[in-house]
């Protein structure tokens, strides 16, 4: 059973305030704080309960004349605690849990819920802790009035210089924090909706198990993690700005963010490739009152990726709106931003690898004639995109694949003769390219001498183009080819190719393994250069969600067949229609 993170935080805040008014109880709060400081009321209360002895102390405050016994374990045995503190704390929790499970307690104190030591000790879920909060709240409600003292609530000391009269900075920070909190709550709410939808789909057998596993994989893990993360978000937002620890929140969650989101991002590539049958569409459309199949489901499935890439932007906004003068945790906030960026990089890499695996898998069926080459010998796929390729004044469009040991050029066989703009990007919701490819040529990185990246502006349209010219040692001397597009994507290609370039290799003049293949029908695969280390590159992630996400522009235009190439006796290249 999932608990509402916002309700949990409110209950903890109220209960902690009441406990601070119980005679003798503040010392336990101080003890917990001495072991680990936290401004989060949920964590603070959980730390207090985990000591065990505070629970025993509370139970012993119940009146004996009402039939309540005594545990008499409100202090640690110093020797036992020093020997094994975890065991001492678990022992105290067990003594309290035994009393709660008594036969008559539920009649005397309605609302008490039984829980085990593991329920309270295990922090991977808030369910057990929520039962402990409910039970302790019920006990506090039955305590005699003389156990309470009057006075102001304990307040965390301030550790910063206030913003004084800088109302504009206060307003800006308040707006950013409010956006973070409100969008986080809405996000977790949507995750719960998606989880419930997935459960209904599974129970109703509306789609086969394989597609169900792909479409809703890792949903439960997301709900579990984000519900816990929302507790920290709400807790920080409830404090004065000087006491909010947003950087610490992201630093602590960095590892789990990666563990939960990286598999989801990698799996999203499989979600893209799902081909729904008419029957499946009809079946899922019967649940449109929960989530509309065509209008809402794609947005729900991509929302986690969008949210993950939104966090660095929110933290950057906080950093820009404050300074170390007014905010004591400024450097911590900067480290939190770096942590969120590392998570984003990890997710990009996970999706890049997954997408490249799919691309390589599809190449096996998309290319019929490999002209004697073996795909397994190419190494890992690093990048692929559709570019204009220019050589000897002739421009054509090719799908270019950069492997560790091969720069590979293919022409897509258009199943529908239709021209499309080279500027259009591949929609994340549209099927991946599956049309046949013709092998048009290749360059071995070991033969590349250097590359040149520059930009040019068309005189007529003033449009800016990026150009990457690859120079290599050909059979008859130096050769080159230019890859051109109208975005900055080529900078990634420049970086990767530079990392693959090997020192010049001495060969016989007749060695056809260097340069663009002069004999496309050769059946003898050439020797390959050693595999160099590859750099991490961000591949495309969806942009149709709230918050900018790094995107990779994909071209899909078909050039006119009027670009004819008339080969001579010894063609310098094989890029031809």
From TrEMBL:
Protein name: Dbl homology domain-containing protein
Domain of life: Eukaryota
Disordered: region residues: 500-577
GO cellular component term of the entry, any: division septum
Occurrences of domain DH (ranges): 172-350
CDD domains: PH_Scd1
A molecular function GO annotation: guanyl-nucleotide exchange factor activity
InterPro entries reported in the protein's UniProt record: Cdc24/Scd1_N, Cdc24/Scd1_PH_dom, CDC42_GEF, DBL_dom_sf, DH_dom, PH-like_dom_sf
GO terms, biological process: establishment of cell polarity; septin ring organization
Pfam family, one: CDC24
Signal peptide boundaries: none
PROSITE patterns: DH_2
Record's compositionally biased regions (Pro residues): 523-533, 568-577
